[in-house]
């Protein structure tokens, strides 16, 4: 593993060109579409999807158990998860608890392990998100979902175990009510929150992890101890995708709601200037950084470091993203050229599961599974 991180690493490469439509060694394949019918009772909404994906979910849950047991060999932690986690957490917000119970029933995986899978964001996500505005005021939103750092390295094929096991679980979801799309999202089968999605014609939203001492584990601990005034990240974003009716309303909610873990919310709208990165502590918003095309700020980007701080020297995806966007120019920005930027190492890395491209105004939502062939940075 250390060789992958600190050996002959190609820290940066020339900005990629003409990578779209996706093909070649960095493209794993398309992401399948499923419909989630919001008119069904929460317990039944995920049955069709989970019937397909239960074997893949069992594989990743077993990997998580093996990792936990490697740290605590007695097996007591997983015993607590299986027997006591649902009780420790107490009732989770509706409809999420019922949805998770339905997933547990279909997959025959203990509810505690389904809940553990659903609180993962609070601990292990790393990502790159971009919102751009072209010369006509048209907004585009792209992201790389990177996940699985430190969760087991496979020395046989130079890959992160959990990252690889999440790829078969990656699904595009069309959430419908009355046979009409409410919102679209890319998620992981078994995970009921949403980290990447859009409401067609209204807004697009991605979340990136924010590292902080007062991190997600503190929020989870407070919740277990009875302080339940904060919202789970994936539940909050799923809720705004389902219910919010404008960019401004969504920005207001994401800025003000207490959350369990620090985060960056990257939000795009449908009109000129509607794009921002909201830097969140668990209880307050620290910064809202917005598009301002009149002042030449035609894009906002976010990796996993506060914009006013230098990124970790081994993980400077931010500089590469900026260089490639500037080389692309505002005149030539498009979903294909955003895909090029997100295909440039180290923005593309061993943790990258998928690349998502969103055009809210035109209703385009595309997701592609990714690979990062060697030489490739470990995160």
SSE order and pairing:
Layout (H helix, E strand, L loop, with lengths): L1 H5 L20 E4 L2 E5 L9 H25 L4 H14 L6 H12 L3 H8 L2 H4 E9 L5 E9 L5 E2 L4 E2 H6 L3 E8 L2 E9 L7 E4 L3 E7 L6 H9 L8 H11 L3 H10 L6 E6 L6 E6 L4 E6 L8 E4 L14 H12 L6 H8 L9 E8 L4 E7 L9
Parallel strand pairs: 2-7
Antiparallel strand pairs: 1-16, 3-4, 3-14, 4-15, 5-6, 7-8, 8-9, 9-10, 10-11, 11-12, 12-13, 15-16
Give a brief outline of the structure:
By secondary structure, this protein is of the alpha+beta class.
Largest sheet: 8 strands, mixed
What is the helix fraction of residues, given as a range? 25-40%
Q: Name the structural class.
A: alpha+beta
CATH class of the domain at 27-36 and 120-370: Alpha Beta
Oligomer: single chain
- List how many beta strands DSSP finds: 16
Strand order of the largest sheet: 2-7-8-9-10-11-12-13
Instruction: Give me the Rg, rounded.
Output: 20 Å
CATH H-level superfamily title of the domain at 27-36 and 120-370: Penicillin V Acylase, Chain A
Percentage of β-strand residues: 25-35%
Outline the low-pLDDT stretches: 1-10
């Amino acid at each position: 593993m250390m060789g992958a991180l600190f050996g002959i690493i190609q820290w940066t490469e020339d900005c990629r060109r003409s990578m779209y439509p996706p093909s070649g060694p960095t493209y794993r394949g398309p992401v399948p579409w499923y419909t989630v019918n919001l008119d069904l009772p929460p317990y039944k909404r995920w049955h069709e999807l989970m019937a397909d994906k239960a074997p893949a979910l069992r594989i990743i849950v077993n990997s998580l158990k093996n990792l936990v047991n490697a740290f605590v060999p007695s097996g007591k932690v997983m015993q607590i998860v299986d027997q006591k986690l649902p009780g420790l957490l107490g009732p989770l917000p509706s409809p999420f608890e019922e949805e998770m119970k339905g997933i547990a029933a279909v997959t025959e995986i203990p509810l505690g392990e389904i809940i553990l899978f659903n609180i993962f964001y609070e601990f292990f996500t790393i990502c790159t998100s971009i919102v751009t505005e072209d010369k006509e005021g048209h907004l585009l939103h792209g992201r790389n979902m990177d996940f699985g750092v430190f969760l087991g390295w496979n020395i046989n094929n130079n890959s992160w175990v959990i990252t690889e096991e999440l790829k078969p679980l990656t699904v595009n979801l069309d959430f419908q009510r009355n046979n009409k799309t409410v919102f679209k999202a890319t998620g992981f089968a078994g995970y009921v929150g949403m980290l990447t999605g859009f409401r067609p014609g209204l807004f697009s939203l991605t979340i990136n992890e924010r590292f902080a001492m007062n991190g997600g584990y503190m929020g989870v601990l407070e919740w277990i101890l009875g302080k339940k005034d904060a919202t789970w990240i994936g539940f909050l974003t799923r809720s705004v995708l389902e219910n919010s009716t404008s960019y401004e309303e969504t920005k207001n909610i994401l800025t003000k709601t207490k959350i369990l873990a620090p985060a960056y919310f990257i939000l795009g709208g449908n009109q000129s200037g509607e794009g921002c990165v909201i830097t969140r502590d668990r209880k307050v918003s620290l910064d809202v950084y917005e598009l301002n095309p009149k002042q030449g700020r035609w894009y906002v980007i976010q990796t996993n470091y506060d914009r006013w701080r230098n990124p970790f020297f081994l993980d400077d995806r931010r500089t590469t993203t900026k260089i490639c966007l500037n080389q692309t120019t505002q005149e030539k920005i498009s979903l294909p050229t955003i895909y090029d930027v997100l295909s440039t190492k180290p923005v593309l890395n061993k943790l990258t599961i998928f690349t998502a491209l969103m055009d809210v105004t035109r209703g385009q939502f595309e997701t592609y599974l990714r690979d990062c062939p060697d030489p490739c940075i470990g995160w």
